[in-house]
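tool_call predict_complex ligand=NAP
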Amino acid sequence: MTTHTNKGRAVITGASSGVGAVYANRLANRGYDLILVARNREKLGQVSAAITEGTGRKVDIIQADLTVPSELRALEEKLASDESISMLVNNAGSGATKSLVDSAADELEAVITLNVTVLTRLTRAIAPAFVKRGNGAIINISSITALAPELLNGSYGGSKAYVLAFTQSLHKELSAKGVTVQAVLPGAIRTAFWDNAGLPVKHLPSEIVMDVEPLVDAALAGLDQGELVTIPSLPEPADWRRFEEARAALGPNLSHVKPAARYRVAT
Ligand code: NAP
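tool_result ok
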């Protein structure tokens, strides 16, 4: 489907492959011009050429390693100053599958830098502009490991739990100001992510692995339905509602003047 409505420009990080490349295709079809960001210029060029040919939309490429501070700052400045940008998809991310004790500290830090620090800084760069305009959307790609951190490396699951919590907090701060935010929690998706994380996807049970196109289509359907949190595989939305209700029920008892009775020191 090609639409000729211009919805402004969507910035997609990690758009050279996998989830980001499919977001690029789908958002172009929805009428967005695009700014695609990743390290691999050749792959970005291929994604861009296919979209331009298929949709006629304008696609710009920014080759950047977002873990390099100067390259991250340049994108932050673009986000803060380019008034044509109406959406940010914080998708660039990397994984880790080895146990903590088998991982190098630098590997763990690299995951946290890209999945947490980069996502936070880019969001901080665009949010004031969206608030000023009373309009804009921020899509943050989390993971089901945010809810099931025992599945993979704890730095990865922890980084994605951060993305979920950050997005929930952003929603509270920004929704009344016209800014839409969404956290997407994919399960296992058939992309290069798994090879790069050291566990080729062919080693996973095929019944838990989703193709990338249905994942992105489901995530965008969730966005259209106004969801703050989209879990594409989850059959029953009531299960997530119950989880959130249980969390909310803890609220009134999370901060008191005295410890709970079971922790009081006998005097
Ligand atoms: P992917 O195909 O490996 O995509 C990762 C993207 O991030 C690539 O475009 C990569 O491009 C880019 N990237 C990596 N490091 C970068 C850096 N330092 N600077 C800029 N761009 C960088 O994997 P994917 O599955 O599509 O992953 C996309 C998102 O989905 C990630 O946040 C991941 O955590 C999340 N996710 C994936 C799964 C899954 O099972 N695949 C499940 C849940 C969540 P370059 O190499 O060209 O830089």
